[in-house]
Amino acid sequence: MAWVFLVVAGLLEVLWAYAMKLSNGFTRLNYSSITIVAMIASFALLSVAMKSLPLGTAYTIWTGIGTVGAFVVGILVLGEVASPMRILAAVLIVGGLGLMKLTS
């Protein structure tokens, strides 16, 4: 169950990052509220996952999901640049996440 909590926590990290972008510096109440609620839920689920997963593994996976997820949302939803070097960087992050999962 810890892995499920961790993945959901990572997905919520993507949500709050996206909502924060849309909040326009916390000037739009609806997106600001989504950001704060998603942050709290993400941290709460991460803390539950950390009860049984090693700190390094849990934190690395959580931030990796958030990083790559925000990268994908940026490209697909916000029209950010998908240069070969940025894509390679994301692939390397995913590879590192896979290795981290294999070693835990």
TrEMBL record:
Membrane topology, as annotated: Multi-pass membrane protein
Pfam family, one: Multi_Drug_Res
Membrane-spanning ranges: 29-49, 61-79, 85-103
Keyword tags: Cell membrane, Membrane, Transmembrane, Transmembrane helix, Transport
Protein name as catalogued: Guanidinium exporter
Keyword Iron-sulfur tagged: no
Family stated for the protein in its record: Belongs to the drug/metabolite transporter (DMT) superfamily. Small multidrug resistance (SMR) (TC 2.A.7.1) family. Gdx/SugE subfamily.
Subcellular location: Cell membrane
Domain of life: Bacteria
Membrane keyword on record: yes
Signal peptide bounds: none
